[in-house]
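chain below, 392 aa
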Amino acid sequence: MRKFDTVNELINTLKPEDPVYCVRPNSIKKSVDFFKNNFPGKVLYAVKTNPHEKIIKTIINNGIENFDVASINEIKLIRKINNKVKIYFMHTVKSKESIREAYSQYSVKDFALDSKDELQKILEATNNAKDLNLYVRVAVSNEHAEIDLSRKFGALPSEALGLLRLCKEHGKKVGLSFHVGSQCMHKISFSNGIEEIGNIIKKTKIVPDVINIGGGFPSVYPDLIPEPLENYMQEIKNSLKKLKLEKMPEIFCEPGRALVAEAGSTIVKIILKKKQKLYINDGTYGSLFDAGVPNFILPSRMIPNGRVVSKKITAFNFYGPTCDSLDYMKGPFLLPNNIKEGDYIELGQLGAYGTTFRTKFNGFYSDTIYQVDDKPILSMYDRKENVDYLVA
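prediction:
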């Protein structure tokens, strides 16, 4: 992977016609170090967030050796990169064939579930193995999340009671887990989830071997500015203490966005300008899905090209290169008002899901990726660096 010191150097050197994706290993090191130093337990990287081999290798090289996967292909990817790290199959809906292959061929022993039928599948696919670690996922409120996961996953707390008892009978170890939803904007969601886990423990008299508080840790966007992650961590620690358990279970988390969001950005070129509409060469069918369907406002900046950049800022909408009218990103994206066709824009916070959702719709596709060593536009880990951007 070719390296550049900065995005500006990359663009001024290559002047690319197609979208370019940038990876920042230094940002991954910073986020991984934060979780290792502040989370009171084991950190599992959620592979779905960004499965690029460079990202996975960087995460491993910085000390994370546990991975939350959702498919047999993610398992194969991780095993191809490293055969020693531990894999947790935390998708609660899996085919019997995937369970069997994961257990028998890739030595995966850890499986999540949220129904009796899924538990039955796991037991049948592994021939009632005695070395399984089973995690009951409990549905909790996602009211503070930008993307709600609770409608699709999780057993109701009343259902979780029986599931936990069954897992205790069949598993070597048992766990209780929850997920507060993607891009959770309030730390109270984690304390509420832990409180719900405590209620299940009281009713069943079963103290799990593991409490998995899932993912949902936020990144920072121009219109989504969470509290410092240190506050989330303290809330989690305080809530665990309130459980008043004689022996604290092992604690897991499954961050994705918070680990890799600011490690990636996309460089786009303007194809056409119509007043406040900018037509660009990437879009919702490419790396900018988050800017379209869930309408995340991505941090944006015009890349200087030698001419004067206006200090007057204008709010723009983006339109992608395909012939589909859904290829639209409302924004607003704040950029100099003299920006024009042929100029380049960097869009940040795309280390999360930027490469995952790309398609080849209409023949528009770019897999050009470079490493850069400059700082991201916004950061949860260097919040003072955000001031100039957010004030401007």
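Residues 188-204 form the longest helix (17 residues). The chain is about 30% helix and 20% strand.
thats it, cya
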